[in-house]
Design a protein that fits this description.
About 40% of the residues lie in helices and about 10% in strands. It is built from five helices and three strands; from the N terminus they run αβαβαβαα. The termini are far apart.
């Protein structure tokens, strides 16, 4: 009688420990602790429900891609132009990375000094729409 009870106790103990295991942590590389991507990581973490997210501060998009490729992060916020730069130097690493989606469109902005006397994009020549298309 003791042997079946010991076996049942062992089965229950291992079953209970399986339920006690925490869900895996999703390590999210973001950016500087003072930046918007770090804040966005914490906002995502607060909405994640049962998914445990660790928000990882980094030096930015290229650092995020390095850490993603090295397995130090499970996901990352990356600016689209950084992926292009990274891929030119690390083509093999791209086979391990999948784009999950676009958080928001990146809107390029042009700035000039007051001395340049350029105050409108149209002053660069052509229409504003052509300038936007060139930036895309």
């Amino acid at each position: 009688m003791r042997a079946p009870l010991a076996a049942l106790a062992l089965i229950l103990a291992t079953s209970a420990s399986a339920y006690a295991v925490e869900p895996p942590t999703f390590r999210l590389c973001t950016g500087s602790e003072s930046g918007n991507y770090f804040r966005a990581g914490h906002m995502l973490k607060s909405k994640a429900g049962n998914l445990k997210i660790e928000v990882v501060p980094t030096q930015g998009s290229l650092d995020n891609l390095d850490k993603l490729s090295a397995g130090q992060c499970d996901g990352a916020f990356v600016q689209s132009d950084a992926l292009l730069v990274y891929s030119s130097k690390n083509a093999a690493a791209l086979s391990t990375i999948e784009r999950a989606g676009v958080l928001y469109p990146l809107v390029p902005q042009a700035y000039s000094t007051r001395r340049s006397e350029i105050s409108k994009a149209i002053q660069f020549g052509g229409s504003t729409r052509r300038a936007q298309q060139a930036a895309e």
